[in-house]
Write a structure and sequence with these properties.
The chain is α/β, with parallel strands linked by helices. It is built from nine helices and nine strands. Helix 2 crosses helix 4 and helix 6 packs across helix 9. Bound molecules: hypoxanthine.
């Protein structure tokens, strides 16, 4: 029988295990927390001590990131003594990978022993109160590709990862949202910290004005091209999830506007806010407890 990776539907449990075992043979770090860095936010990996770095090309089975602004490296290390792994760059639907392949690293994290995944992304602000540079804690998502049948769990279900029909009403851990709000207030970030709903589209073209208006009416506060499918896979295999979007541009909602979304603006905003996002993430990681013994 062909391995699942050869049939286009993703990777089997055995293939994900082989990748996890290869990584564990190369480093002694056994991460409890995984951090996925969005466009322009790869600097989050710099907060790890004693880093052990792998290029995606060198990791068996790993999907490659081809996007400018995404380094394509997996960094293992510790954060105030806590073992972590950080993905500097992710792959996206618009690069042409099947959705099951894009999300494969999340299953590898589970097999490495990760309990909590923290994700960041760049997003366009749909909520008219949002400004460029705001950071939106994601409280829920709208999975547009999923409406068209493109869900990462489509295909045979391996119960070793999780159940056939996983619940998503608790996808974003409410205690972690609360913790981020509290720490954000302590750090003096209240002016730019928001909480809202993320909608994912396939990209790579940015949205039309009509599409932005529609997405806003549907209840979305920010729009992007990642994260939601990774969250689905992480929840399927029982990891806790926290995610936040850096608002890198205001989605164009008005036909009189001359603004145009562009990738350079996304990367520049990422650089400017990254230090504060690093601080928030590292303070959160320190406060996490593990083995179902959560401080928060
Ligand atoms: N739309 C979609 N994805 C994005 C945007 C946007 O405006 N900004 C950053 N990523």
């Amino acid at each position: 029988m062909l391995p699942e990776s050869a049939t286009g539907t993703g990777y089997s449990y055995e293939e994900c295990s082989a990748t996890a075992e290869w990584l564990m043979s190369q480093t002694e770090v056994r991460p409890l927390v995984a951090i996925v860095c969005g466009s322009g936010m790869g600097g989050l990996a710099d907060i790890l001590k004693d880093p052990v770095v792998f290029k995606y090309n060198d990791i068996p089975n790993f999907p490659q990131s081809t996007v400018h602004g995404h380094a394509g490296r997996l960094v293992f290390g510790t954060l105030k003594g806590k073992p972590c792994v950080c993905m500097q760059g992710r792959s996206h639907l618009y690069e042409g990978y099947p959705i099951q392949k894009i999300t494969m690293p999340i299953r590898v994290f589970k097999l490495l022993g990760v309990e909590t995944v923290i994700m960041t992304n760049a997003a366009g602000g749909l909520n008219q109160d949002y400004k460029v540079g705001d950071v939106m804690i994601i409280k829920d998502h709208i999975n547009m590709p999923g409406f068209a049948g493109n869900n990462p769990l489509v295909g045979p279900n391996d119960e070793r990862f999780g159940t056939r029909f996983p619940c998503m009403s608790d996808a974003y851990d409410r205690k972690l949202v609360q913790l981020a709000q509290e720490l954000g207030t302590d750090l003096g970030y209240s002016d730019f910290l928001r909480e809202g709903v993320y909608v994912v589209l396939g990209g790579p073209s940015f949205e039309t004005i009509a599409e932005c208006r529609m997405l806003h009416r549907l209840g979305a506060d920010a729009v992007g091209m990642s994260t939601a499918h990774e969250v689905i896979v992480a929840r399927h295999c029982g990891m806790r999830v926290f995610a936040m979007s850096l608002i890198t541009n205001e989605a164009v909602m008005n036909y009189d506007s001359q603004d145009k979304a562009n990738h350079e603006e996304v990367l520049e905003t990422g650089k400017q806010r990254s230090e504060q996002m690093q601080k928030l993430v590292s303070n959160m990681v320190v406060r996490l407890e593990h083995n179902n013994n959560f401080a928060c």
